[in-house]
From TrEMBL, chain B:
Main location: membrane
A Pfam cross-reference name: BPD_transp_1
Residues in the signal sequence: none
Organism lineage string: Bacteria, Pseudomonadati, Pseudomonadota, Alphaproteobacteria, Hyphomicrobiales
Recorded topology in the membrane: Multi-pass membrane protein
Entry protein name: Spermidine/putrescine transport system permease protein
Length: 328, 268
């Protein structure tokens, strides 16, 4: 997930193709779609081959993502205006689902709860990750850093429900944590089936990614900048606050935003660690679809989530790249 | 000096704590999958393979594993082809609407899987794909293509565009250049993409949960088991699933590591 948006943003960097050919060669062929400029002679058939070639590679990804990503999302939006008559989905153009959901207190409560819990998670994850990212970026050898970065990638591709199950066991009344606390006269900790449990689960999900992104952000801060601050008598914490954090701002904000996005859409942590009490938006969706069978209402919740995420991402991008850009 | 050493020690200790938090669930799953006791708790109940025997005797788990392998296999081939194509198009062409094209290819992982799941379920219900393995594959390809694209694109960034042009000037057709130059050059990234997309698909549970119907994949089975009682069998499944995913990731990483090492040497 982390790499995908980077891939999307790759084109400007990709087109520049750092340190490759001299300008003359670049401008000669690169801008034109392949065959029209590259090989001379037998122009028409060459051009036809080139067009077929371009279409063969260019069309499938676009077609696939349009058919199975764009169309379903569009379908989801359309469905918010449908109605359920006699337990059957009927195409319609009613606003009833929107009115119902937006006025329902269960939706409003879940929305506010999910939003703020995700904001809270993003803040906690960002703060908790920072010293670790700082250590990885500045205090260990490059080989150790590479190994630990690899380690942080691993959880991202390993079964998240199983990790949540494990966490559940840790915090259960007879679990490891409480049986370790009991002899000390502490506990028992009541984490399961509370919002705290949900946040713990969110951290299981987001912390590796946040540490990873923060490490990249900090490692990209020019060393000379930090050394200059030290040489000018700037203390450690002041260097972090006035030099490192402002220079790494974009990466730090991106890391926090990803934590928010992941937590906001997560279903597993609030269900199995939070006990669905209170439900989050993803739990509402799953319930409406799996048991309630009211797909149009679930679609309204889903569209509200997408809109929220888009607004949050736009605000965060503005925050990352806006205003003090000149100074950074 | 000793102050600095102490500070460094504290930072390292804190980092170890963060890593412990991240890896404790993974390690404990593996450790307790061999525990004889029913409830995973600290006094270790002795070594046992009974939970592994239990899951290999369970037909629903076996079917889940088979389904997961089929879905992951098909997904990784399609997603890697699509990801390679999109990366190549990005590398090679400039055209109107290219940023839209790339956004379309790259965006799916930023949409919460719960929403992708609902969207695919409602859509696939209309076209008769819901409840089938093909329906799951379709969704997993959407989700994992961007990962493949990112890997191949990173590799292509190291390929001098003049090489392709030189091949054309020597009379090679675009197709010959593709399979004689581009694909061989990208091969490690293509293999890494195959492993990575397989891992994404193998662990994906939300889209699969919405779309699968009765054709459960392994993670969907796990999700269903989580709703029931504490069962050490989940640890055994978890250990196997971790084993498969980590193997795939390590393979991908090794391929990419060899790549970046070579690229660094070439530049240096």
């Amino acid at each position: 997930m982390t790499r995908a948006p980077a891939g999307g943003r790759a084109p400007p960097a990709g087109l520049a193709l750092p340190g490759t050919s001299p300008e003359g060669f670049m401008s000669e062929t690169a801008p034109a779609p392949a065959s029209s400029t590259a090989p001379p002679a037998t122009v028409p058939s060459r051009r036809a081959t080139g067009a077929r070639f371009a279409l063969f590679w260019g069309a499938p990804p676009a077609l696939w993502q349009a058919a199975f990503f764009l169309v379903p999302l569009g379908f989801l939006v359309a469905m918010t205006f449908w109605s359920v008559k006699n337990f059957r989905l009927t195409p319609d153009s009613t606003l009833a689902n929107w009115v119902f959901i937006l006025n329902a207190s269960f939706f409003r409560n879940a929305y506010v709860y999910t939003f703020w819990l995700s904001v809270f998670t993003a803040l906690i994850a960002s703060v908790a990750a920072f010293p670790a990212a700082y250590t990885l970026a500045y205090k260990v050898s490059p080989a150790a850093r590479r190994f630990m970065i690899f380690m942080l990638v691993v959880p991202f591709f390993t079964s998240y429900p199983v990790r949540i199950y494990s966490t559940q066991i840790f915090f259960s009344p007879q679990g490891i944590i409480n049986s370790a606390l009991a002899p000390l006269g502490l506990g028992p900790l009541h984490v399961l089936n509370t919002p705290t449990g949900t946040v713990v689960g969110y951290l299981v999900l987001t912390l590796p990614l946040v540490v990873l992104l923060q490490t990249f952000a900090l490692a990209n801060v020019p060393r000379t900048l930090i050394e200059a601050a030290h040489n000018l008598g700037c203390g450690r914490f002041r260097t972090i606050a006035t030099v490192i954090i402002p220079s790494a701002r974009i990466g730090l904000i991106v890391a926090g935003t990803f934590a928010f996005v992941l937590a906001f859409g997560d279903y597993v942590a609030p269900t199995y660690l939070g006990g669905s009490k209170p439900p989050t938006l993803s739990i509402l969706i799953a319930d409406q679809v799996k048991s309630g069978n009211n797909w149009p209402r679930a679609s309204v919740v889903a569209v509200m989530m997408i809109v929220t995420l888009m607004v949050v991402m736009l605000v965060m991008i503005g925050l990352a790249y806006g205003r003090r850009k000149g100074r950074a | 000096m000793s102050m600095a050493a102490l500070r460094r020690l504290l930072l390292l200790a804190y980092t170890a704590l963060v890593f412990a938090f991240i890896f404790a669930p993974i390690v404990s799953t593996i450790v307790f999958s061999f525990n004889a006791d029913r409830f995973p708790s600290l006094p270790w109940g002795g070594f046992s393979l009974q939970w592994y025997e239990a899951i290999f005797a369970d037909a629903t788990i076996q079917r889940g594993l088979t389904n997961s392998l089929v879905v992951a296999g098909a997904t990784c081939i399609i997603a890697t082809f699509l990801g390679f194509s999109a990366a190549y198009v990005d590398y090679r062409y400039r055209f109107l609407g290219k940023s839209v094209y790339l956004a379309l290819a790259a965006l799916p992982p930023t949409v919460p899987v719960v929403i992708l799941g609902v969207a695919l379920l409602t859509f696939e219900g209309r076209v008769g794909l819901s409840g089938t393995l093909q329906g799951i594959i379709v969704g997993h390809v959407v989700l994992s293509t961007p990962f493949a694209m990112a890997l191949v694109r990173m590799r292509l960034a190291d390929l001098d565009p003049d090489i392709e042009r030189a091949a054309w000037n020597l009379g090679a057709s675009p197709w010959a250049t593709m399979f004689g130059v581009i694909v061989p050059f990208c091969l490690p990234a293509i293999l890494a993409a195959l492993f990575l997309t397989a891992a994404v698909s193998f662990d994906e549970f939300m889209i699969a949960w919405f779309v699968s119907g009765v054709n459960e994949t392994l993670p969907v089975r796990v999700l269903a088991m989580l709703q029931g009682q504490v069962s050490p069998r989940i640890n055994a499944i978890g250990a196997i699933v971790f084993g498969v995913s980590i193997t795939l990731i390590v393979l991908a990483q090794l391929l990419l590591g060899r790549l970046s090492g070579r690229a660094a040497r070439r530049k240096g």
